[in-house]
Design goal:
alpha/beta, 3-stranded antiparallel beta sheet, 11 strands, rod-shaped
Length: about 325
């Protein structure tokens, strides 16, 4: 539940028109040549008694204070906060499974595949405010960076921190898929999807087969969208390191196991995409965003704080003070 804003209103503002009745009362008060309510034997030197003058002033304005407080109370002043109650079960649970192998540093996307992916994936996350999103990074092994969460700032931070040197070398697509499935299989969300991204082929022989991961996803009603990243032909890829430990880039053939990616998508009811440029990768994410619409039900909740009682107490307090002053004043003059 999120707090939107604080505001103030009168529930029955038409009662405020009663303040117009003060005009004839003020006119009558101004035309009075003498006070009818309080008769004193003599007012000689009364102007020198500031206490008596102050009491007379209070008695004169008390009726206006009482009437004003009653009118405001009838108008019911109140402040309110507006909050939104969102049914999270209507959202979609999404796991991003990202290949972070060294080949993701290839420069056929601007400035390289991994950096382009980070930028576009972050935009995708920003467009899914009502969904829970998680992140898995994989190369020769798979590692959960962020479990499913509604805190998208954490997901974006971990996307920024993706590093091609932090995991074992190689590409194990089945591992990246199965780890993502393990986070979604117990989800109660109406829709569960995995966006699996890779730029290569399986190179780890004893890793989880991608077909097994696809069957696990299907069994748990998880849809998988697969994305093959890389141009057709050749691209500058890191193929070695120099004596200073810096990566050396050379032209190498782009190899993506498209048959496997298509099979994963078809098995789970998803779709396979090929992204050969930064723009086409962004188009892929936009299409997935359109295919997986979230129908969240948000209810606005109004929480009111009433203030009419305070003005009723003011009216009662002034009324009692007025009665007390009149009694003391008459007793003093008698």
């Amino acid at each position: 539940m999120t707090l939107d804003f604080l505001n103030f209103e009168f529930y029955s503002p038409w009662f405020l028109l009663l303040f117009l009745a003060f005009i004839p009362l003020l006119v009558l008060d101004l035309r009075k040549k003498k006070r009818v309510g309080i008769k004193v034997p003599s007012t000689r030197n009364m102007e020198e008694n500031k206490g008596i003058l102050f009491v007379l002033f209070l008695l004169k304005i008390s009726k206006y204070i009482i009437l004003s407080a009653l009118i405001i109370a009838m108008a019911r002043p109140r402040s309110f906060t507006v909050s939104q109650d969102q049914d999270d079960s209507k959202g979609i649970d999404i796991m991003l499974s990202v290949d972070v192998s060294l080949s993701m540093l290839a420069k056929d996307l601007e400035p390289d595949r991994l950096t382009a992916l980070k930028t576009i994936a972050k935009r995708f996350v920003d467009k899914r405010p009502g969904d829970r999103i998680g992140l898995v990074a994989y190369s020769g092994e798979a590692f959960t960076k962020v479990p499913l969460t509604s805190d998208h700032a954490v997901v974006i931070d971990e996307l920024n921190n993706l590093n091609s040197l932090e995991l074992q070398p190689g590409t194990a697509i089945g591992e990246g898929l199965s780890v993502a499935v393990s986070h979604l299989k117990d989800s109660k969300s109406k829709s569960k999807i995995i966006i699996l991204m890779t730029d290569g082929v399986n190179t780890i022989e004893n890793a989880m087969p991608s077909q097994v991961g696809a069957q696990l996803a299907k069994t748990n009603n998880i849809k998988v969208y697969t994305i093959g990243i890389g141009t057709n032909g050749y691209a500058l890829m890191p193929t070695a390191t120099d004596i200073f430990g810096e990566l050396v880039f050379t032209e190498a053939e782009v190899k993506i196991d498209e048959p496997v990616l298509r099979e994963i998508a078809q098995t789970t009811g998803g779709k396979y995409f090929r992204a050969t440029s930064t723009q086409s990768l962004e188009d892929v994410y936009n299409e997935i965003n359109q295919l997986e619409k979230t129908e969240l039900v948000s209810t606005k909740l109004y929480n009111y704080q009433e203030y009419f009682r305070m003005f009723l107490w003011i009216a009662l307090g002034v009324l009692l003070l007025d009665a007390l002053l009149r009694w003391v004043f008459y007793k003093f003059l008698s």
